[in-house]
Structure formats: structure tokens, C-alpha cells
Amino acid sequence: MSAGPILAVLQEPQDIVNIASAVRIAKNFALGGLRLVAPAAFDAYRIEGIAHNTADFIARIGHYDRLSDALADCVWTVGLTARGRAAKRMVVRPREAARELVRRSAEGPVAFVAGREDAGLTNDELDQCQALVTIPVSHEYKSLNLAQAVAIMAYETWLARGGEDEPLKLHRHVADPAVQEQLERVFQDWERSLWAIEFFKTRQAESVMRGIREVFYRAGMDGREAALFRAIGIEIRRYLERSGLTVEPPPDGGGER
Questions:
Q1: Which of the four, 148, 214, 231, 247, has the lowest number of CB atoms within 10 Å?
Q2: 15-59 pLDDT per residue, tens
Q3: Is residue 175 part of a domain?
Q4: DSSP of 167-207
Q5: What is the residue-averaged pLDDT of the chain?
Q6: Is residue 36 part of a domain?
Q7: Is pLDDT of 256 > 50?
Q8: Is the pTM of this model over 0.85?
Q9: Which domain range does residue 208 map to?
Q10: 24, 151 in Cβ contact below 8 A?
Q11: How many domains does the chain have?
């Protein structure tokens, strides 16, 4: 991961739920910290009640009266805004901004800044950021919740730090791939069962079975799955027999071996 912390800075957040959501997000994506500038309210107990198991992170939240103080030690900052700018500014998308935040974090603390829920960041506040970030959304509904915007930026920084390389949890019961002998038995039992329910009465058996083979081959089943589907084919015939119905074998005598 990066050398310097990647920080989320909230300028005058008005809703404690959004602060709690930002705390949870910061923990989810391993941000280096959260800084609050003149929040409308702050209650560590309530925040942890919303964002469970985050007491350690909450204890490290920085509190500031001015945005300039919150950004004083940062080597690079970006401000989130949805408004177009009249002045010429560097405006980037979240992914590009995240890559640059990670790159610059090798030099020291970096931060992305999110503004008030109702009005965002002022021009003076955006002037304190070295680049602006605009999150692309539908033109029909541009309003994006503060915590959602923080989540998008935090997620992108996580990916830029290699988070996507985190291994996926493997299935607890890993089975060996199905071998061709197992698959042939599946096909044979399914063919016998389909003959038993007269599925081939108006269909060409050879064509149908070839289609079934293709489906099973694409599925890439393991041995456990092949055994399950073979059991289904066998049980169809057994059910018919238990019900007193005569189960005729396929015309060529194929089926279970």
C-alpha cells in the first residue's frame, strides 16, 4: 500500500449519519483517516452505533475549524464538485484522481474533500484543492449523497492501491474437475430418463443429447456437481418405477453403465 495516508475530508457535514457512513467506508477501504471541518454535530457514541466496530478509527478523527488547517500538511488534494467551473481548472474523473492520490501519497499525506450535503464546496474552498473531481452521473438526476460520493472515491483509491488483487474466498468444498467418464455416465442416465418420460416422442434424441452435452461442457462442472446431476437422472427413473409405471430402456439399449 501507499507510504502516506490517503485522507477523506468533510467540509461542514450536516448529518451525523453521513459522518458515520464515511467512517464505515473509510474502514472498508483502508483510508488513512477522516478529517472533519466544523461539523454540525459530532457524537462518537452515536457514530459507532451506526458504524459498528469502528471505535479505533473514530478516536483518530481529526477536528478542524477551517479547511485550510485540515489540508495544511497535505501534498496533494482534490475537491469533489458537480458544478461546471468558469475558471480553467484541472478536472478529472474519480479513477484518474485516485491513481494520482496514490502516486502522490509516496511524498506525504493526500486528501479528497467533500462538501456540505446541500451546497457542496464553495469556490474559495475549491481553490484550496489542486484538482477537481466530477463523478459522472445521469443528467436526469445529478444529486449524489455525500456518503455515496465518499464511497466512490474511497473505492477507487482502494483499487489504485491494489485492492482488486485481494483473493476471493474459495468455496469451502473444492472438488476435482469432472472427468469425461463421469460426464458420459451423466449423459447416459439423462438419456434414459428422457426416454422414460417420453421426451423424445416428438424430438430427435441425437440432436437433443448433443445440445445437452454442449450445455454441460460449458458449465465446466466438478466431480461433485456431475455426481449430483447423474443422481437426478437416475432418480427420475426410480420415481417412475415406484409409481408403478413401466420404464422402457432407450431403443439402442443405452443408458446407465
A1: 214
A2: 999 999 999 999 999 999 999 999 999 999 999 999 999 999 999
A3: no
A4: PPPPPSS--PBPPHHHHHHHHHHHHHHHHHTTGGGSS-HHH
A5: 90
A6: yes
A7: no
A8: no
A9: 180-242
A10: no
A11: 2
Residue pair 154/21 in contact by the 8 Å Cβ criterion: no
C-alpha cell at 195: 426416454
Q: Is residue 253 part of a domain?
A: no
Length of the chain equals 257
Q: Which pLDDT belongs to residue 254? A: 54
- Closest listed residue to residue 19, CA positions, set 32, 5, 8, 31: 8
> At a CB cut-off of 8 Å and minimum separation 6, what does 5 contact?
31, 32, 33, 105, 109, 110
- The answer to whether residues 156 and 194 belong to one domain is no
Candidates 250, 107, 137; CA nearest to 188 is 250
The last residue of one of the domains, among 135, 165, 195, is 165
192-237: per-residue pLDDT in tens? Answer: 999 999 999 889 999 999 999 999 999 999 999 999 999 999 999 9
Q: 163 pLDDT exceeds 90?
A: no
